[in-house]
Amino acid sequence: MGNPKPWDADRATLLIRELQQMPGALLPILHALQDEFGYVDKAAIPLIADALNLSHAEVHGTISFYHDFRHAPHGKHVLKMCRAEACQSMGCDSTIRHVERRLGARLGETTGDGNFTLDAVYCLGNCALSPAVMLDGKLYGRVSREVADFLIDSAQRHA
Amino acid sequence: MSVKVYVPCDAAAVSVGADAVAKAVAEQIASRRLNASLVRNGSRGMFWLEPLVEIETPQGRIAYGPVTADSVTGLFDAGFLEGKPHALRLGPTEDIPFLKEQERLTFARCGITDPLSLSDYMSHGGYRGLERALKLTQDAIIEEVTNSGLRGRGGAGFPTGIKWRTVLNAPGDQKYIVCNADEGDSGTYADRMVMEGDPFVLIEGMTIAAIAVGATSGYIYVRSEYPHAFRTLRRAIAIAYDKGYLGSNVAGSGKRFDLDVRLGAGAYICGEETSLLESLEGKRGQIRFKPPLPAISGLFGRPTVINNVISLSTVPIILDKGGEYYKNFGMGRSRGTLTIQLAGNIKHGGLVEKAFGLTLREAIYDFGGGTASGRPLRAVQVGGPLGAYFPESLLDTPLDYEAFAERKGMLGHGGIVVFDDTVDLARQARFAMEFCAVESCGKCTPCRVGSTRGVEVIDKINADQKRSQNLELLGDQCEVLTDGSLCALGGLIPYPVQSAIRHFPEDFHKPAPPPASGPAQSSGKVPGKVEETRPWH
């Protein structure tokens, strides 16, 4: 996950230039921008459209189609919580409610202090060790309420 | 001789502490100045035992698990480098019944080798399939795959050889091999395990496919929820290029095959092959009309083989040992092995590779040991979010494409999610529709609108509003979804819904509960704002 840098149009142009020759370059470019800045700034749309000879609408439409691409910076930590069937069978809903209540934010939201962004995901491929979450790109299994508290506490200590 | 200590690097093993265990093992080896080395292998797929640490002894590999970082010092004190007794000692790995009773063909190496060691791969039978393929004509390679009876393991079960034959015969100056690694079904992780535990087998399978159909370029499309797999594949591809197994002269054959791995961006629908192709091209992942089939007009409009990870990873052994060998496993029209993934509320969750024909009951009880909670099993969902919910009474169904279809179910990618008696099937049916609404690509109306209407109608049923009329309406909606949707998402979402109603009618006739529960979706709400009306439990 790293520490996202503030939006910088020159840096974005450079990243786009590095990738624009690949076949089907749009997704790799969007990922590169999000890796760098933590989100895809609106100002990137004309830059990408120019580089790939696409309309602004095509670029915007692609960004908005995918759950991953953000329109605004995320919190310091990103906690993705699986709410698919295998995790449901092991009580993920209860863990999710607990975390939402503790952080005062719901799935899809960022806490008021900007520390945590909570996201819903549908399957992290850890279905034999449900419930699963991913915190700042790291996967965790058997995440009971207690484990979730532990993860949040450790993240806050390293905030 | 240096003793090898194996600690898995598989994401699931890491999710319960394998990295911390590996670190502790390395520290003990260093501080005790032992003649031992740490190897990060893939997972054996016995996840309830992870982190599963193995020691290579003259008597074979000895397993210990589940190991925690805290228990490592004690293990060294007990002499586990010599395979000595300890409370966590499980005995020889291969003798653990869960593993011993399997027939591992596709997963022959997974968990045994270092995933990124090409020499390990070669010394365990790697690249023998390619070697043989390079001596055969394109026709003969495809004949071998066709004879093996291999059917697409992504879920659709389409014969792989026929797909390849179509691409071979399709005219085109450029052909592609695309691997569908968008393993989005809940309850499945076999693709992830191969990509993280034995990536060269996938690369080899794709290379054989390329040679068979005359393709020179390939892509692996990995979902973004699998960052570990993505990193492993990148490194494996770089190694394969470096050693001459990819690039302009594959294994000295003079044939070219370039391979790249691409990351998805969180869209379940991109597991549908035409959506995946759109996404690879850099577009919204909306499905395409078929025909034309991808085999005729696929990636960038060119003839394309698009296969699932497991299908492609099974090709090397078929070429190595022959189609006849593979065909001898299985039942009826389902030939070879199925990679069953035991998931959810299950005591012994993990990967079981076994010839088709094992029953659900055998998989869940003989391998899985029943529910994790110890409560009675009530429902099983096989085949991911589009698969049917089966009750206890259907557990004797054999794991076979046709047997599932006869019972209005779907084997899919082989994921089995077990639920105990606390499950509410009306709620599961609602979730199915909700999931479909979240993940619909929006191209066709039945799926885009029908899923949202489905959620509303199920809410009315559960709130006891005109229950019988609404159940009838839901039946009509499901019919429209089944018959009117363009792809399997809308077309199959009635499976979980209608199976829940059919097998668990009592859950749809309960007194109305308090207002809707379950975490809500992000819906453009103000960040940081919490709705106070929400019933916290």
Please give the largest β-sheet of chain A: 4 strands, mixed
CATH architectural type of the largest domain in chain B: 3-Layer(aba) Sandwich
> What is the CA–CA distance across the termini of chain B?
58 Å
Question: How confident is the prediction overall: mean pLDDT of chain B?
Answer: 94
What is the name of the CATH topology of the largest domain in chain A? Glutaredoxin
By DSSP, the count of extended strands of chain A is: 4
Mean pLDDT of chain A: 96
CATH classification, class level of the largest domain in chain B: Alpha Beta
CATH superfamily of the largest domain in chain B: NADH-ubiquinone oxidoreductase 51kDa subunit
Oligomer: heterodimer
Low-confidence stretches of chain B: 519-537
- How far apart the termini of chain A lie comes to 13 Å
The number of strands of chain B is 16
Which sequence of strands runs across the widest sheet of chain A? 2-1-3-4
Identify the most extensive interface between protein chains.
Answer: A-B, 60 and 76 residues
The helix/strand class of chain A is: alpha+beta
Structure classification of chain B: alpha/beta
* Helical coverage of chain A, percent range: 40-55%
Structure write-up:
The complex is a heterodimer of chains A (159) and B (537). Chain A is built from 7 helices and 4 strands; from the N terminus they run ααααβααβββα. Chain A has helices at residues 9-19, 26-37, 44-52, 56-65, 85-88, 92-103, 145-157, and strands spanning 77-82, 116-121, 133-135, 138-140. Chain A has a 4-stranded mixed sheet with strand order 2-1-3-4, with helices on one face. In chain A, helix 1 runs antiparallel to helix 2 (26-37) and helix 1 runs parallel beside helix 3 (44-52). With 537 residues, chain B is of the alpha/beta class. A 5-stranded mixed sheet of chain B has the order 2-1-3-4-5, with helices on one face. Chain B has a 5-stranded mixed sheet with strand order 13-12-16-14-15. In chain B, a hairpin with a 2-residue loop joins strand 3 and strand 4 (60-64). Chain B is globular. Chain B starts with a strand and ends in a 34-residue tail after the last helix. In chain B, 57% of the residues are buried. Classes of the chains: A alpha+beta (159), B alpha/beta (537). At the A-B interface, helix 2, helix 4, helix 5, helix 6 and strand 2 of A face helix 1, strand 12, strand 16 and helix 17 of B.
